[in-house]
């Protein structure tokens, strides 16, 4: 039936279930709680849930797991939908909410009471905690544990009807207060909360607990494989217990895999929310955020994210993946798809003293050195140009092949020039270079076969477009800020640098990601760029500059 080799243990289980005929069709769900924006960890879950179903001709539900009113909002619901679509997945008509099942969940809870396996407890939250025991000590039964079915039914119905205040009663499963698994010590099924629900309105004042709502929603939807992260492993006996008691028509199977953690980032919605609420970042979609919306605004292509989680793989082992692995995927995709352009991030003016004033030549430039299909464009060249400040060095070492006093360099797609004089301001800083060009060396058509070692990029002063370019670095200085005692203490103060750049004219109207030659990949900022003010984001540098720095540090030591 399936001749593809499964690439992970979950696909193996799923393919086997199809092979053996246990299931004719695979049905999965991706169940985010709408209490924040989705992040890079969720990309892994989305690609797995939607991916395995799509590969086997199955179906996937996007289920908003909204059992916690107060923390959830329609803003988050919309963001989740946008993000899943943008990643390339489609739930078609299968958008559901745990709250869609509140009526059924209530009916099923009545059934548990009638079966004598659920009871209304009237201990306070504090007393319930005291009765629960510890990992080494068994719990104690609540004095209300042996209420009759009739009394429990009456109290539960009155909980539903709103006769009690928050915390006065709670519906609990009657399992085993001595279980070594704390989740099995009579866990709560329903609690009273007089608070309206963002999707269900004000109909309810009792809300089901996650463990109960989740497994039963899986059953109602006919989910075959309920894939979740490892922290739910200890909850699986409870997941199965509800199914055993209620015997729904479909019986889902929960399978756990390890969370994806990315070095130098946080993957907890709660902490990401704190960064937003405290104004540490500009919003959930700040391009430094590991949220899907942040990565989208940063310019990461969805294909790169899908490839990233595919390479990371689905396992049961804890993972802290290098940022470099994600950036490599981004470069791999953009290397093929992004046209090349020229831009100067930290401009230094040069004047070609022997170039006629007022003359403009149009230089032909390849749009992609590796792919002629991208075609060419014309770059205006004139007497006054911008080059990168660090492409000039006054006291340059012998091996510096860019511009230095008396030295020569080729301007990409232009001429070979020589630096004759550096002009300085009163502080001794170089503010302009006087250069001369060799008219016989025009790229492509020049008559001279003179060669120089260095080639640098440039922009014509009269034609360049001004832009504010945002250069991003890691948000944290610690490789594992998730584990930091206080993540505020490991924030990277240099995570955003803004430079006033000069762009070649064609960039005024570009709408795709491009490579600024020698600098990296960039795109227009979808939120702040306007017709009159150009704002670009650096998506990623050309090479892993961190790896290079580490290598240099090692060489210096060794
Ligand atoms: P957070 O702790 O950030 O709130 P969560 O797990 O509580 O994350 P949910 O909205 O409940 O967030 O997650 C939806 C689904 O995504 C769940 O099935 C969860 O297991 C999965 N998921 C969440 N974080 C990760 C991660 N880092 N790696 C892989 N899957 C994840
Ligand atoms: Mg969760």
Which class of the largest domain in CATH terms?
Answer: Alpha Beta
Ligands and ions found = adenosine-5'-triphosphate, magnesium ion
What is the name of the CATH architecture of the largest domain? 3-Layer(aba) Sandwich
Portion in helices? 25-40%
Note the total helix count.
Answer: 13
Q: What can be said about the biggest beta sheet?
A: 7 strands, mixed
Domains counted in the coordinates: how many?
3
Our estimate of the beta-strand percent is 15-25%
Helix/strand layout:
Elements: H1 9-19, E1 27-30, H2 40-55, E2 59-64, H3 74-87, E3 95-97, H4 102-114, E4 118-121, H5 125-132, H6 149-161, E5 170-173, E6 188-192, E7 206-208, H7 210-221, E8 225-229, H8 236-246, E9 253-257, E10 260-262, H9 269-277, H10 292-298, H11 302-312, E11 319-321, H12 323-337, E12 340-341, E13 343-344, E14 347-352, E15 361-366, E16 376-381, E17 384-388, E18 408-411, E19 416-424, E20 430-437, E21 455-456, E22 458-460, E23 465-472, E24 496-503, E25 514-516, E26 520-524, E27 534-541, H13 545-557
Parallel strand pairs: 1-2, 2-3, 8-9, 10-11, 12-25, 14-20, 18-21, 23-27
Antiparallel strand pairs: 4-5, 5-6, 6-7, 13-24, 14-17, 15-16, 17-22, 18-19, 19-20, 23-24, 25-26, 26-27
This protein binds adenosine-5'-triphosphate and magnesium ion (MG).
Residues 31-33, 41-42, 44-45, 228-229, 259-260, 267-269 line the site of adenosine-5'-triphosphate.
